[in-house]
Design a protein that fits this description.
Length: 127
């Protein structure tokens, strides 16, 4: 059975545009300040996530400028939120994605990759 795997890599710059836009469309309250940065938290990374109420898996923390530079405003996103945000961005950019494919995130150096994998049941004996 062949496996089709695709990877769409989103740069740091693209993520800075996509993630806050997704939050706004989902009605997540964002501060009226610029986004400072974001942090990708891997489950195996050993880092403690500030919010313990998010499910296991990859997490993203968006940090926004606040009056206290040591305490930025934080928005926590789960892996499924980020996958949904990247799918939304692909739709807006007219990048076709298969509906039935498995989609998950892979951290890259200064980016995040949306990996798309499909297993097709093809009977090669009939070819």
């Amino acid at each position: 059975m062949p496996t089709d795997v695709r990877k769409i890599i989103f740069s740091n710059r693209e993520l800075r545009l996509i993630l806050p836009k997704y939050c706004k469309q989902k009605g997540i309250q964002l501060p009226d300040s610029p986004m400072q940065d974001f942090e990708l938290i891997r489950p195996e990374g050993g880092k403690r996530v500030v919010s313990d109420d998010t499910p296991e898996g990859l997490k993203v923390i968006l940090r926004f400028v606040s009056s206290n530079p040591n305490e930025p405003f934080r928005i926590h996103m789960t892996e499924s939120d980020v996958v949904e945000a990247l799918i939304m961005a692909c739709r807006e950019a007219k990048i076709p994605l298969p509906r039935k494919a498995n989609k998950h995130l892979q951290p890259q150096k200064d980016a995040i990759a949306l990996s798309i994998g499909m297993n097709e049941n093809i009977d090669f004996s009939k070819l």
